Amino acid sequence: MEYLIGIQGRDFVLVSSDRVAASSIVAMKHDYDKMFKLSEKIMLLCVGEAGDTVQFAEYIQKNVQLYKMRNGYELSPSAAANFTRKNLAEYLRSRTPYHVNMLLAGCDEHEGPALYYMDYLAALAKAPFAAHGYGAFLTLSILDRYYKPDITREEAVELLKKCLQEIQKRFILNLPSFTVRIIDNNGVHDMEQISVSNL
Amino acid sequence: TQAFKKVIEINPYLLGTMSGSAADCVYWERMLAKQCRIYKLRNKKRISVSAASKLLANMVAEYRGMGLSMGTMVCGWDEKGPGLYYVDENGVRLSGSMFSTGSGYGYAYGVMDSGYKYDLTVKEAYNLAQRAIYHATHRDAYSGGTVNMYHMRENGWIKVSQEDVGDLHHRYAAEAQ
Questions:
Q1: What residues in B contact A29, CB-CB < 8 Å?
Q2: What's in the keyword line of the UniProt record (chain B) (predicted)?
Q3: How many Å from the N-terminal Cα to the C-terminal Cα in chain A?
Q4: Do B72 and B106 belong to one domain?
Q5: pLDDT, chain B, mean
Q6: What is the average pLDDT across A102-110?
Q7: What percent of chain B lies above the pLDDT cut of 90?
Q8: Range of the domain at A153
Q9: Looking at the 3D structure of chain B, how many domains does it have?
Q10: pLDDT value at residue A19
């Protein structure tokens, strides 16, 4: 029901998520933000079981902030991704596993831009583009077809719009609007929301 | 007909609604009331609606998977103005301007959405709220009894009315004539 997508370019990562917070058949909110800012240059996009998403994501968020307070500098995106995965893996075989699917996107001065795909079984993969949700079945092939490693920001936004148009056209559930953010060496930047009207 | 109070008066500036398991709601919202009081004693100011709802969400999140059943709305007025949060047994916490919970929530959403605007007058809001609850009790087998209505204002809440749904039914039928 929920949708996450990330596209990495040469010096940026573009991420987008839908804005519906649903409970059974009802959409309780149409402006819900599924992205969590872990640090100045790292965003965690998190979907999955109700309650688990916010609880787990905020736990990771606070711990990443704690690292910064203790050590004076921020975790790199790869370190944050591995930390998140480790936690998820430890909870997986406990009495209270967290059923969450995530995309971690960040930009590092040394490593460059990075996009990590993580699922509820604590699998972690660094990828040039990734998506979660039923919408991923419809859009991953579009990303396969049109993505190139040196994609520019404008091209990435156009590619994102292609994906969201496909969701509007073929996905049975209504996802009317999407939050869009771009992460580069200068930090996280909010972009104009994409909704049915400006697709 | 029964009159069970599904709105708990936490303090003069905070209200909590109850749906799901009555036992869970009554217990956890009383625990929330306790935490809010302790907050006020320690910090010499009233707790914000955001913090109060977060306390409740975090309390029940610890009992994840243990079978709690609770769908509640925490409503209050703090320095940021009016606040409404939906909190449930899964640890979901959502801020918004309108929510409906309980077995008849879908029916209530239908009536509320068709009559809702952000700039409703107070009188219009009273009528819409009563209508939404009434229509939900009409269709949902598990809802009924009395409609307790509260209004959260800048200086605290007031209890607006307590009406039996049977009386509402006859009133609306008469109005339709």
A1: 94, 96
A2: Cytoplasm, Differentiation, Hydrolase, Immunity, Nucleus, Protease, Proteasome, Threonine protease, Zymogen
A3: 20
A4: no
A5: 94
A6: 96
A7: 93
A8: 4-195
A9: 2
A10: 97
Q: What is the DSSP string of A83-144?
A: HHHHHHHHHHTSSS---EEEEEEEEETTTEEEEEEE-TT--EEE-SEEEESTHHHHHHHHHH
For residue A20, the chain B residue with the least C-alpha distance is B94
Full domain range(s) for residue B154: 102-176
Strand runs labelled E in B13-155: 14-17, 19-20, 70-78, 81-88, 93-95, 146-153
pLDDT in tens, A121-148: 999 999 999 999 999 999 999 999 999 9
Average pLDDT on A159-188 reads: 96
Closest CA of chain A from B90, distance in Å: 5
Flag if B94 and A96 touch (Cβ within 8 Å): no
Give the three-state DSSP class for A155.
helix
- Domain of B138, CATH number, reads 3.60.20.10
Burial of B149 (0-12, 13-18, 19+ CB in 10 A): middle
A32/B94 CB distance under 8 A: yes
CA distance A187 to chain B (A): 27
CATH number, domain of A43, equals 3.60.20.10
Residue B8 shares a structural domain with residue B87:
yes
Same domain flag for B95 and B153? no
Q: Which residues of chain A neighbour B61 with C-beta distances below 8 Å? A: 51, 55
pTM of the model as a whole: 0.92
Tokens of B153: 């204002």
Are both B2 and B67 inside the same structural domain? yes
Task: Note whether B74 and B121 are same-domain residues.
Answer: no
Looking at chain A from residue 134 to 163, which residues have their Cβ under 8 Å from any Cβ of chain B? none
Type and span of the H or E element at B40: helix B22-43
Residue B161, CA atoms < 13 Å, CB-side half-sphere: 14
Q: Which of B65, B94, B106 sits opposite A21 (nearest CB)?
A: B94
Token pair recorded at residue B17: 């609604």
Considering only the beta carbons, identify the residue of B64, B86, B91 that sits closest to A28: B86
pLDDT in tens, B79-92: 999 999 999 999 99
Residue B60 and residue B15 in one domain: yes
Tokens standing for B66? 């243990």
